[in-house]
Structure formats: structure tokens, C-alpha cells
Amino acid sequence: MTKNRLTAAERGEEVLQAAVTAFGAAGYQGTKTDEIARLAGVSQPYVIRLFGTKQQLFLDSCNRVCDRIEQTFREAAAQRPDLESLGGAYEKLMAERELLVLLLHGFAASVEPEIGAVVRQRFGGIHQLVRDLTGASAEDTRQFLATGMLLTVLTAMQVAGPDRIPLPWAEELLMTMKIHQPPETD
């Protein structure tokens, strides 16, 4: 039985997936490229050969998250171009907790000039995309993004999303946002 060798692009995709997981768990400062390499099943020098620097890998990971959010919004808008549809689509993204946590890590790492420039540009792009897809006013878009950020934080704290820890204050917040939480699991 022979094992199929992965192409460089396929291997790069595996490394990027491992980076999303690692950076989502420990953030930019707390993640070492050795850990990413271990998760991807490659050597640390190979990670650097593919991405150049840890910072570039982090930026590529943040871009992956923003691409996923934008793709999700475009797909929702293709069905119904309004904020409610986009909100329902973002609610589904809550199941991909590592993506949302990585987004928060990207905001936190924005003190690094290169990271900050990319994260600000991407968040501004999401803002504009929401307006373009829905025709929403500036105020409605602000409210939509503010609600999304609250959902992101609640998901990161594990009080929203599929593996949530049900706490009365969080349940109250989610109910006021009309978020449909999956039933609790034992």
C-alpha cells in the first residue's frame, strides 16, 4: 500500500488549518511555530519555508477567518439580502468557535503595526460588505456588527454556541438577541 504524497498547496492548507487551531487556542504571542508544525505533521522549518514568518502565518490565518465570514455573508445574501439573513448565517458560524476566537486574537494583536493594518482593513471590508449586500443604513450596520461582536465574545467565553455553558445572564442576553441556542447536552 503506497501513501499518496500531498502537493505543496495541500500541505500548505494543512499548515494553515493547524495555524487557525493553534492561534485560536493561544493567540499570536502564545503560539509557537513548533506547535503549528506538530499539529500539521511537518517540521518547523517547513512551516517557515511555506509562510516566511510567524507573523505572516498569523495574518494568513486572520485572512482565512475574514474570508470565511465574507463567504458566509455572501451565501446568505444570495438567498435573502437582509441583515436578518446575514445574522442567521453568522449564528451558524458560532459552531466554528476556533474561527471566532482567532478573530478576537487578531483584534488583540492589532498593536503590532502590520497585524493592525490588516485586521483594520479586513474588518472595514466586512463592514462595507454588509452595507453593500443589504443596503442597510450606517446605524443598522453598526448595530448588526455590535451584536456580532457580542456573539463572538460570548462564543469565546463558551456561554453561546453549541458547547455553551448555560448561565442565566448569558441566556438572557441571547434571548434578547433572539439567538436560537441548541438544546443543552449532558
Automatic annotation (TrEMBL):
Q: Which residues form the signal peptide?
A: none
PROSITE patterns named among the record's database cross-references: HTH_TETR_2
What residue intervals traverse the membrane?
none
Q: Name the Gene Ontology molecular function terms of this record.
A: DNA-binding transcription factor activity; transcription cis-regulatory region binding
**Domain HTH tetR-type, first and last residues per copy:** 9-69
Q: Report keywords, A-Z.
A: DNA-binding
Q: In its keyword annotation, does this UniProt entry include Manganese?
A: no
DNA-binding region, residue intervals: 32-51
Q: Which domain of life is it from?
A: Bacteria
InterPro entries according to UniProt: Homeodomain-like_sf, HTH-type_TetR-like_transc_reg, HTH_TetR
Coiled coil residues, start to end: none
| PANTHER family recorded | HTH-TYPE TRANSCRIPTIONAL DUAL REGULATOR CECR (PTHR30055:SF146), HTH-TYPE TRANSCRIPTIONAL REGULATOR RUTR (PTHR30055)
Name assigned to this protein: TetR family transcriptional regulator
Natural source organism: Kribbella voronezhensis
